Write the structure tokens for this entry.
Amino acid sequence: MRKSREVRSVASLANETERVWVDSMAEAYERWLTPTVFRPFARDLARRVSAHAPPRVLELAAGTGVLTRELLATVDSARVTATDLNPAMVDVGRRRAPGATWRQADAMELPFAAGEFDLITCQFGVMFFPDKAAAFAEARRVLTPDGALLLSTWGTLETHDFQAALVAGLERAFPEDPPTFMVSVPHGYADADIVVADLRAGGLDAVRVETVTLEGHAASAADLAAGYCTGTPLRPAIEARGDLSSTTAVVAQQMEARLGTGAVKGSMTAHVIEAVPT
Ligand SMILES: C[S@@+](CC[C@H](N)C(=O)[O-])C[C@H]1O[C@@H](n2cnc3c(N)ncnc32)[C@H](O)[C@@H]1O
């Protein structure tokens, strides 16, 4: 009963924006993607945040809280407020990182007063904001004048072994009309010069731009395929084209052909950018 309601709700989203994240996707994302793809970068970003020793930290697009947990463990005596647009992600995040104050919020319209935070951080979220400069202006508004924004965005698809293998799998599953989500959204903001220009338009100066390459590890290519196909906005895109479980199996096979059988590892590259109010 519950399952058929979920499937209907996912299918009904198929024609809407690919940026939609729905209920069970949050659990799948947390289970298969956060430990393999997102945690290595969360550890790196939390370490950078910690160097600022900020008393009040705001996290944008916090998802299920992988970075939130690292911030709580790493940044001494910080008060962490974690936000995300999607209530389902906030629900999972609140359970997984109860030490933070969780709030549903659109990064483009933050429910906070000017100057409320000493540091704002955002891991792999900015690519999803429809108007990046407007979101950066919002971040600047709620930062103290001597605060900082620390964000990350993926490099190009070719620099991410897991996601390049995933896209090859989707092309195998749907040769005529593969979903374009991975290239257009997660890897669609890979030019650091454009990020720097958008920051400037939002009233922030990029003071450090670093390209960071880390290794991800997963128990199998099939786990990664399950995470990407059922735990991201690819899910409604796949549902719109065919059967979710048989497509996930085709994608898993193709990912295994590229990444290998058994436990797999892959290189992943991101830009990590620090900006301060101009
Ligand atoms: C790839 S996930 C990253 C989540 C988390 N930061 C992590 O590292 O696992 C992107 C997140 O952006 C959120 N998101 C998309 N548009 C948003 C917006 N306008 N404001 C806030 N969050 C948004 C999604 O709900 C999703 O949780």
The pocket of S-adenosylmethionine is lined by residues 19, 21, 34, 38, 60-63, 66-67, 84-86, 89, 106-108, 123-125, 128-129 (CB under 6 Å). The chain has one domain: 2-160+181-216+267-277. The first helix runs from residue 2 to 12. The beta strands are 56-59, 79-84, 101-104, 117-123, 143-154, 204-218, 264-277.
